[in-house]
Amino acid sequence: MSGSFTEPWFDPYILCKSNAYQITVNCKLPDEYQKIINRELVSYLRVKATLQADYMVLLTTTHFYLYLRKSHRHIAHPIAQLYKTNGVDPLFDVFLQDDDYQHDPQQIVKILTVDERGRAILLVHRGDRFTQTCNNIPLYHPYEHITAVKWINADQALIGSSASQIYLLNSTSTDITPCVLTLYKQTISGPLGFVKSLYTTPIPHASEFILPKSEESGPIVNMCTVNETIYVCSHHQVSLWTINCQSEAQLITRIHLQNDIINCISQHVPADIKKSMLQCRIVNMDVKIKEELVLLVSYTVPGLSQYVQYAVIKFNMIHNNGKVMIFAQHTASLPYSEIPSPSSKIPQLNITKDIAFASFDGTVVARSLNKKSVFEESLVLKDKYNAILSVHVVDSSEEFNTAMVVTAKSGVLEFQVNKSEIQGPGNIYAGIVDDIVERNTMVFKSRLEQALFFGVYNESPLQFPLTVEHHEDVGSAVMDLTNEIRTGTCSFLPKTLEISPIESRFYFQNHMYKMLKDQMLDQYLSKEQRSQLFELLELYYISKQLWKITLEKSADVQWIDTVTQLSQAMLQTDQAGAKSQQWADFLTNHMDKIKDFLAQISTNNTSSCADDIIPRVIQKCRSFEETNLPRYGIQKEPKNSFSAKACEHLVSIFDQKIAHYTISSSDDQKAKLQDMAALILDIHKQEPCFEEYNTMKKKVFDGLCAVGLHRAVVDLADKHNDITFVVSSVPYLGLSSTEFKEKSRYYVDRFGYPYFESLLQQLDTENREDIWYFCEQYAAFTEVFFSDEEHMPKVAWIYHTKRGSYEKAYKALSSCSDQMSEKEHSLAYPWIKMLAVAVKGKA
Length: 843
What we know:
Belongs to the nucleoporin Nup133 family. The protein is α+β, with helices and mostly antiparallel strands.
């Protein structure tokens, strides 16, 4: 299935894979049943399926659906309406029997479903025949309800209740109505019990053993049969029974486990929590061999009592002369907690000899039952509308333990654990290690790797939550995986992709930090580690941009030759092979040299490769830094960023281009020079030192003016609010008189008086038509302008004379008389005399 995929995470059927375990898509559900599940999921739906896919049973409130793999038959039968009391789904169990009667092998499927109040429906399907029988379990107590159902053989089923009672239902092919007995003998207790006994028919009992008090035992949670021994589990105890074909029951032993469970759990909670503070109970049970019993237990601790936590405990049992001794062999906490709600399903437990598979709402946890290993991994569904419908284990091999997980929307998933790998010496799940923190860190790194590569596709039904529970060194794990991605030694890093290896490394490195941040694990990284991750990601990004330029320049032999020679000079090697391959190898495997490579680029003409590389890299890195410096929580002064430092080199290239600029330079080169100037100013604008910014503006504008690029000067000076260069460059734009006036008015309206002042000072005092035009347009600005005695006295005296300010006119005219030409003086002399008389007369 997966042979055509170069990497396992390319394969849509492989959802997760490491040396220790894998989760795959085993098969889809039959279309008919998938439609039923899609329709019934929000209401009542029960599913049972064997791991070998011999059958699949779906039970709704109205129908019974059966799929038989051997005969490829799809069967649907309407059934009597099932009750659903207090939001609790009816319980049911399935028994599959191969019947060789009259050499006509047939599969007999028996389904027993019982609702909370004891209403039972027995469904039997044999060949083409289908029977349905209803019965009522006569519950003894008014508060009693059904809590567990289990077939123990083809004709007998056990039904457990909340009152610790166990009901035995006998059903044979000749019975019209199944017979119901109790395993425990009922006793009359109190006046209420006596009165009830007068009006009810006693239920036959299969043994003479007295029902224990419910507070001592608790509700029945599950029942199992191994080698004709029946294990019955309640909240606080386990009892062992034998039942013969005549429905005679014998109690082998009843073991109260509350103290044992508390002792086991106390080893997995903080030392300051006393045993008396723990609230523990058995949630479920599974037995595979007579000598071993595995329990799924829940517990709460003070301060977090609303959260229920879980653990699995493996007990060994010794049978000796009719007596049973039991002792805890192994306890393992589970990485799952929840706040219970009425809609929460009862957690299920399925075991192999070495692995416990505990299933919850949307999660299956696989946990080692052997002290040789601390293996603990989870299958977690991503879609909240998806659901785990059924979990069963397959027959274990020497090497693998496997659970089949039937889901509502993702078919049947196969959760396979490599027993040899998790128990072998030197593996990351080893139970005994020299450094526990190092071991836990390696496990976290493995989970991070799975989440990074297998969580890449949105179509995956799984999610990969990452948690820190065992003092893992998150920073060390992240940096180790980062180094493996950088060096190409990560086993999951794609070797061949439609995108380049450079781009794939950038993607996964970037996605890794996103995962950490989304799950709030970035807080475990030191400032130095975050800085290293950012700088490496920026190198990937620069390399990626250089590769994009390379693809654009693939036909430019001179460009390829230039960058290859520069890169090989950096490495001080002369590699064999095509130059394009040498350049690609440099970008892929020598990223630490890329910044040095960029620093070596210079230009002495207008066609150098610097035109393509330096400005583009800087511009891309600026936006990259603006986005990612805050994301990585790095406080860095703008001048210390890569784009700012590279800008210093860009200024040097700019100076060289200005020095080599000629009138015959192409429009493309002019545009590149302008873009370079714009980039330099944009970067320096972010500098906190305003003086450095102003110095750079003057340097750039002077350079552009020197080569006659006044249009660029005006546009950039406008953008950077440099009025002086706007005023000085507008006259060089080749505008008509009308266009000049319109352009100047636009800037006066935009910048206000400062521009008006610079404009008037720039205008020719010999040709005063434009001066008077702007004075008339902006009277208020004009008054302010000429109130300064140093502003254009040759024009100011005329302005003051027109306004009748003779004293100001006389003073202005007197101050500039020595600067006038002979013609100007002869014209102004009469005015000097008249203004002098006017001033004296006024005095």
